[in-house]
Amino acid sequence: MVPDRACKRSEPLLRATRPSIIGDRGGGDRMEEYEVDLRDYLRVIWRKKWLILGVFLVAIGAALLVSFRMPSQYEATALVRLSSLPQIDRVRLQAPSFHEVMIILKVRGLLKEALKELESGLPGPEGSSLRGLSLKAEIPEKDLLKELGLLGAQGAQFEPKVIELKLKGPLEPHLLEVILEACLHSLGETLRGDLSADAKEEIARLSTEMEVLQGQREELLEELDQEAAEYKETLEKQRDELRQELAQIEQAKEKLGLQAGEQNATLEGIILRERFIALNARLQQVERELADLELRGYKKFPELYAQVQALDRELRELQATVELTQRLLNPGPGSGWEPFEVLGQPAAPPGPIGPNRRMNVAVAGVLGLFVGVLLAFFVHYMEGERVEREAVDHPAEGRSTKEMEKEEK
């Protein structure tokens, strides 16, 4: 029947995927069937060569159009080494790390701050090419934040503090160098600002400790003053009592003048004279202690005085720590802390780094061929389905199988 003949025309493309169910057919027959199927595939590709060529040319043309419409990309690089902080006792400050720098680059908008600085014409540091430069006249009005990309990576495997900064964008190399230099300036200001905030917190904490110690010192001094006043009052009271008693004894001068062995000497006079001598010696001792108290002051109370001295030493150490911490806040070389050292100034090669137009065209060509072949087989399959439906609906009478296959070819 004719429908069977029409169905045979769609069989060649299916033979390669059908397993052989004839047990007595040898390997030669299977190879012959495979070669016939391969010729069928090549025949379909040759018949649809113009379709495949058209898809290939469209892909190549689109790749050329897109690649040459894309602006050339340039790249500027700079190499920096993060600085360490000086060791300061009692201060909990951390030097900037690679992770912190990456957060500043990606999250805190370093590139945006640098572009604002340049567009406003703010001067850069001394000796920098940023001084007096404004990009408004050189860069066309477009969103630079979408066009530029600032990346950071560790510059050396065994030196985690070395960071390589890369700025990519469709700008001239010298402009990328200027923008990257502005990024370095903004990065330094940001790191100094972060350290300044941390240092101020530490200074506030140290100041609080100093206030507490100063209060303890004042309490000890008050206690010392009270002890000294009470001791002085006791000594003065003893001195007054001794003077009064000596004055009473001096009133009996006739008894004091008689010594033992004299004719008119009495036992009462002898005792009174010895008492006078003892009281006078005690009075001199009290006066010496008062003079020593006036001379030595707090040293007369060694335990309390030692505590005051210890507090004074601790206060001096805290004050020196605060002064060292405040030096980190002073801007400028030599007087303050610099967050990093520039190992390699921003530099951009004159040649572009992208786009790789040859690679784009080559990839587009391969994809175009692949899509063209798939589309050719799909079209062939749809044509076979259409022929089968027509053969079923309108059987061709009087046409041989050879004529139909010739027509198909």
List the helices and strands and how they pair.
Blueprint: H1 2-8, H2 12-15, H3 27-47, H4 49-69, E1 74-82, H5 98-106, H6 110-119, H7 144-147, E2 149-156, E3 159-169, H8 173-250, H9 253-257, H10 267-296, H11 302-327, E4 340-347, H12 357-393, H13 401-408
Antiparallel strand pairs: 1-3, 1-4, 2-3
Helix pairs in contact: 1-12, 4-12, 6-8, 8-10, 8-11
CATH topology of the largest domain: Bacterial polysaccharide co-polymerase-like
Number of domains: 3
Distance separating the two termini: 21 Å
What percentage of amino acids are in beta strands? 5-15%
* CATH class call of the largest domain: Alpha Beta
What CATH architecture of the largest domain would you give? Answer: 2-Layer Sandwich
Please count the beta strands (DSSP E, at least 2 residues each). 4
The succession of helices and strands, N to C, reads HHHHEHHHEEHHHHEHH
The helicity comes to 55-70%
Shape: rod-shaped
* Mean pLDDT across every amino acid position: 77
Strand order of the largest sheet: 2-3-1-4
Q: Supply the helix-strand structural class.
A: alpha+beta
- Low-pLDDT residue intervals, each spanning 5 or more residues: 1-26, 124-133, 258-264, 397-402
Largest sheet: 4 strands, antiparallel
**Radius of gyration from the CA trace?**
52 Å
The count of helical stretches stands at 13
